[in-house]
Design brief:
7-stranded mixed sheet; alpha+beta; Beta-Lactamase; 5-stranded antiparallel sheet; single chain
Length: 597
C-alpha cells in the first residue's frame, strides 16, 4: 500500500492531517491546561494570600515602629528624666506631677490606637493618674506577670494584657503593651514606660482585608494576639491550628504553607512572618474554596475545545488552499532577518499553524532585539554594581558604634586627646556612611577633610602644615564622597615618611561647568609618573576608578610628581547641583562632549 501522502492531493492531505492533529492537540491542550490551571489557581491563591499577609504585616509593623519611636522620645524627654531623678516627696517633683501626666496623656490622645501610657517610677510609693494614664509605683510592675520580661530587656513587646488600675493581668484581649526602661545619662534605670495599644485597633489593621475562614496574629513566642473567630462567627477557632504550630514553625521561612485537617475537611494554613519583630500573621483557608474556580475553568476548557474542533473542520479546506501564500511570506521575512533587518515583522492574518509560525517568527525577532537591549542593560548594571562594590569598601559602618564606646571610655579616663581623636574619626565615619548615598555636598567633603587634617595634626603636631582654601560658592554642589581625603592621606604616608616637616595645600577652582580640586605637597616626589601611580594608596585608585565609572573620560584624576619637590594632584568633576539618578546617562553625556573651562 502506497503512502497516502503520495497518493492524495496536498490539499486533502493537509485537510485530513489538520483535522486529526487538531483534535489530538486540542484534547491534549485541554487536559494539560486544566491540570496546569488548577495548580496555578492554588498557587495564585496561596501567593496572593501571602502577599496580603505581607502587606498586613507591613501595616502592623509601621504602627509598632511608631509606638517604639514615641516611647523612645518619651523615655528620653528631659522632663521625665529629671522627674525620676528627684526625691519622691520633694516640692520640685510634686510640682512636676501634672506636667508629666499631661505629657503621658497627650500620647494616648493624639496617637491613634494608643489606649494609655503609664510611667512606673522606681523608689516611688504613690500613684498619680488621670484616667488610664499616670505615674505608678514600681512595686505594681514588680507584681505583674510581665515583670520578668521587662526586667531582662531595655524595651520589649509584652503581648496581650488586661489593665486593672495600672496593673497587668495576662488575658486574651484588651491591650497589647510595649515597655521601655527610662535610663539616666549614666545608664541607671529610673523607671519603666509602658505604652498600651488597643487590641481593637490591632484587629482593625488585621481585618482591613477580610479572611475567608480565619485569621490569627501571634507574637515572637507564638502567643495569640488576635483571633478572628472572636469577632467572626464562621471563622475557625485558634484551637484548629494550635497543634500544627510547632511543625509549621520548624519549616522555616522558605515554606509558607501547611496543610491540616479540621473535622475531616482539608484546610490550608498560610502565614507570613515580620522580619523585624518576628510576629506571625496566619490565614486558615478551606481547600474547597481554593479550588472552586477550577471547576468553572474545566467546563470552559471543554466548551472551547469543542468549538475549536468544529472551527478546524470548517476552515481546514480554505486554509489548505492558502497554504503556499503564508509559506512564501515567511520565507521572505526570514531572508530579510538574515540580512540583519531585525525590525522585520509579518502581518499575521492566520490563527492556525501558519499564524503560530508567523507569531513565533515575530516573537523571535522581538526576542533578538530584547536580547540586545538586555545586554546593554546588563553592562549598565555591571557598571553600577562595580560602583557599589567600590563604595562599600569605604563604608565601615560597623566600626562607628565601637568608636563611640571607646570615646566615652576615653572621656571617663580623662584622656582628652584620645577622646578628641575618636570624636574626629567618628565624624569622618558618619560622613563616609552618608546614609548610603554615593554623592554628598562639597561642604560635607570639606568637613570630612577638616576632621582628617585635625586628626593628623594631633599625630604630627607641628611637623605638617596644611592649607585648605575652598570657595563657599561651590559648597552646595555635589561630588562622589571621599574624593579628596585619599590624596591627602597618600601625601602624608608616601610624601613625608622621612621628613620632619611638610606642607600640603588643598585648593578648588570653579569653572564654567566643572570644578577642579588641586592637592599639592612638597614631599619627596618621584621622577617617573608611572611609578607614582604604582605606589598610590588603595583609596587613590578607588577615586580614579569611581571618576571613570561616574563621569567617563571627560573628567578624572591627573597626577604630576617631581623628585625632591613634591606631587600635584588635579581632580576635575562636573558641576552637579543635585544627586544624579541615572549614572549611565550622566556618563554618556560627559563622554559625548568636552568640558567648558
Amino acid at each position: 500500500m502506497k503512502n497516502p501522502i503520495k497518493v492524495f492531493s496536498l490539499q486533502a492531505n493537509l485537510f485530513t492531517s489538520f483535522i486529526i492533529i487538531s483534535a489530538i492537540l486540542i484534547l491534549t491542550l485541554g487536559i494539560t491546561s486544566y491540570m496546569i490551571t488548577n495548580q496555578e489557581v492554588v498557587e495564585k491563591t496561596i501567593s496572593s494570600r501571602i502577599l496580603l499577609l505581607d502587606e498586613i504585616n507591613k501595616q502592623i509593623d509601621i504602627q509598632l515602629q511608631a509606638v517604639e519611636y514615641d516611647s523612645l522620645v518619651a523615655a528620653s524627654h528631659p522632663l521625665i528624666v529629671e522627674y525620676l531623678q528627684e526625691e519622691e516627696n520633694s516640692f520640685s517633683r510634686i510640682e512636676k506631677n501634672e506636667q508629666v501626666i499631661d505629657l503621658l496623656s497627650r500620647q494616648s490622645y493624639i496617637k491613634e490606637g494608643i489606649h494609655s501610657v503609664q510611667l512606673y517610677a522606681k523608689g516611688s510609693s504613690n500613684n498619680y493618674y488621670s484616667g488610664v494614664n499616670g505615674i505608678f509605683s514600681y512595686s505594681i510592675l514588680e507584681q505583674s506577670p510581665m515583670y520578668d520580661m521587662i526586667q531582662h530587656a531595655d524595651y520589649i513587646w509584652l503581648g496581650t494584657n488586661k489593665l486593672i488600675n495600672g496593673s497587668f493581668v495576662q488575658r486574651k484581649d484588651d491591650v497589647v503593651s510595649f515597655s521601655r526602661k527610662v535610663l539616666s545619662p549614666e545608664g541607671k534605670e529610673l523607671g519603666v514606660l509602658v505604652f498600651n495599644v488597643n487590641i481593637s485597633y490591632m484587629h482593625k489593621l488585621m481585618s482591613s482585608h477580610a479572611a475567608d475562614a480565619g485569621r490569627f496574629l501571634l507574637d515572637t513566642n507564638s502567643r495569640l494576639i488576635l483571633d478572628s473567630s472572636q469577632v467572626k462567627n464562621d471563622a475557625l477557632p485558634y484551637s484548629a491550628i494550635s497543634e500544627a504550630l510547632p511543625d509549621m514553625m520548624n519549616q522555616g521561612n522558605f515554606q509558607k504553607q501547611y496543610a491540616i485537617h479540621h473535622f475531616d475537611e482539608k484546610q490550608l494554613l498560610v502565614w507570613s512572618k515580620q522580619q523585624r519583630t518576628q510576629w506571625v500573621s496566619l490565614d486558615l483557608i478551606s481547600w474547597t474554596s481554593i479550588t472552586a474556580g477550577s471547576q468553572k475553568i474545566k467546563n470552559t476548557i471543554v466548551i472551547v475545545a469543542i468549538i475549536c474542533v468544529l472551527l478546524a473542520t470548517t476552515f481546514a479546506y480554505f486554509l489548505a488552499r492558502q497554504f503556499v501564500h503564508p509559506i512564501k511570506g515567511l520565507v521572505n521575512a526570514m531572508k530579510h532577518l538574515k540580512t540583519g533587518r531585525l525590525n522585520t515583522r509579518i502581518d499575521n492574518e492566520y490563527d492556525n499553524e501558519f499564524g503560530y509560525l508567523n507569531n513565533h517568527f515575530n516573537n523571535m525577532a522581538i526576542h533578538i532585539e530584547e536580547l540586545i537591549e538586555q545586554l546593554n542593560r546588563k553592562n549598565q548594571q555591571k557598571r553600577e554594581a562595580d560602583i557599589k562594590v567600590l563604595q562599600e569598601q569605604m563604608n565601615p559602618h560597623f566600626i562607628y558604634n565601637t568608636l563611640d564606646v571607646m570615646n566615652w571610655h576615653a572621656i571617663e579616663a580623662g584622656a582628652g586627646e584620645i577622646s578628641r581623636m575618636l570624636s574626629l574619626l567618628g565624624k569622618m565615619l558618619r560622613i563616609a556612611l552618608s546614609s548610603g548615598e554615593s554623592f554628598i555636598p562639597i561642604r560635607k567633603e570639606v568637613e570630612h577633610i577638616t576632621c582628617y587634617v585635625e586628626l593628623q595634626k594631633i599625630r604630627y603636631q607641628d611637623q605638617i602644615h596644611i592649607l585648605l582654601h575652598i570657595p563657599e560658592t561651590i559648597n552646595d554642589y555635589y561630588l562622589p564622597k571621599l574624593t579628596l581625603q585619599p590624596f591627602v592621606e597618600n601625601a602624608i604616608i608616601h610624601g613625608f615618611h622621612s621628613r620632619r616637616k611638610g606642607f600640603i595645600a588643598i585648593r578648588a577652582l570653579e569653572l564654567t561647568d566643572s570644578i577642579v580640586f588641586i592637592v599639592e605637597d612638597n614631599g619627596h616626589g618621584m621622577e617617573d609618573t608611572a611609578k607614582v601611580r604604582e605606589q598610590q594608596h588603595h583609596g587613590v585608585s578607588n577615586v580614579s576608578d569611581r571618576m571613570d565609572l561616574y563621569f567617563g573620560s571627560a573628567y578624572g584624576v591627573n597626577i604630576e610628581s617631581v623628585l625632591d619637590k613634591g606631587t600635584t594632584v588635579t581632580i576635575s568633576v562636573p558641576k552637579l547641583s543635585s544627586v544624579p539618578l541615572d549614572w549611565e546617562r550622566l556618563r554618556e553625556g560627559h563622554d559625548g562632549h568636552e568640558r567648558k573651562d
